[in-house]
Amino acid sequence: MAPDNTSNLSSRQQQVMRATVRHYVSTAEPVGSRSLLEAFDLNVSPATIRNVMGALERAGFLYQPHTSAGRVPSDSGYRLYVDELIKPSKPTAQRMDRLLSEQLQWQGWSVEALLQEAVHILAHLSGYVALVTLPQLEKMVVKHLQLVQIAAHQVLLVVVLDGYGSESMVVRLPQGTTGTGVAEDSTDLDRELQILSNFLTTQLRGRPLSEISTLDWEEIDTAEHHVLALCHAIDDLAQRKRHPQTHILVTGMADVLSQPEFAEQNRLRNLVALLADEREQLWPLMCVDEKHPLKIWIGQENPLEPMQGCALISAPYNRDSMAVGTVGVMGPTRMLYEDAIAAVEATSSYLSEIMSGLDLST
After folding, report:
1. Interval 299-315: pLDDT, tens
2. Tell me, what CATH number does 329's domain have?
């Protein structure tokens, strides 16, 4: 078990712990005292290093996979390393920002295409699986609405969102509202629907979909009943599109799954199934958490069994001050966390800048 206050580690213990993690990350081999001396300038004897590593093992930060082997960081050891012994790499953050700036310029792409390209760059630079959630629809902002009659008392409602594309659904209007069956004069009906479209656009432009059901429409006169029907339809649309199955994009599996941690076939098969066919299970781990912007799940902290040999790092990207999605990387717990964290945070910041720069005025 890890001590309650990990800050009680001496500076030498911190130094040895940091060196052990970095050596294991680079070699994937259990770490011995002599290998640390050869790789790092610790200025102490092998016996001193052995004593320090023994103390770290008793504290739960290291363990021996075999009696005669060197030591390997435990999940608690990686947690200590992440929380207390490192800072995100500035050079990695700068490199990630440069790659995104050079290769990912907003040119009217769909948001899904933009995010797909961003995680492709993130996966390439980090060497890990990269994941991103599509913007959560209930947080999308309405830009424009359009109504088109398709049958008696039925209209197609098209909701254009701020740069994220459009969503549509068929709405049945109450009897006695727009037209009576098929209008005798299609020009008048088209005019009515255009007036209503303009009215709804004026009322709802700039509002998140999640606010539609809370608006007060009591002051609306003769239009109240079908306006309410349409607003309820918009709210229903948001609710229906919240299901996460299709909201997580994943790339970079091939490279990371070649790591030695995934040599065991059953373990590999379970992880591939999770990432390829069952990724909706990742939603609770990837969803926006405004209280904990940077989330890091390490090993057994992951509630999903196929991921309990992995680490997942994620951070939100924003639309102005509102978090609308998350981006992250997943790899073995033997991860270079200072680089991975920096790459994720740089991607998060860049995506937030693009999302916040979308023009809602037209």
Report:
1. 999 999 999 999 999 99
2. 3.30.450.40
Q: What is the pLDDT of residues 158-212, one digit of tens each?
A: 888 765 566 777 887 766 544 433 344 556 667 778 888 888 888 788 887 767 6
For residue 203, CA distances in Å to 230, 231, 269, 302, 355 come to: 13, 11, 51, 44, 23
> 86: which 2 tokens?
């490192």
Q: Specify whether 235 is located in the same domain as 268.
A: no
Distance between CA atoms of residues 192 and 270, nearest Å: 56
Residues 253 and 232 in one domain: no
Same-domain check for residues 265 and 351: yes
As to burial, measured by CB atoms within 10 angstroms (0-12 exposed, 13-18 middle, 19+ buried), residue 86 is middle
Q: What's the total number of domains in the chain?
A: 3
307: containing domain: 90-135+244-356
Same-domain status, 341 and 257: yes
Looking at the structure, tell me whether residues 348 and 280 fall in a common domain: yes
């860049």: which residue's tokens?
Answer: 350
Q: Give burial (CB, 10 Å; 0-12/13-18/19+) of 48.
A: middle
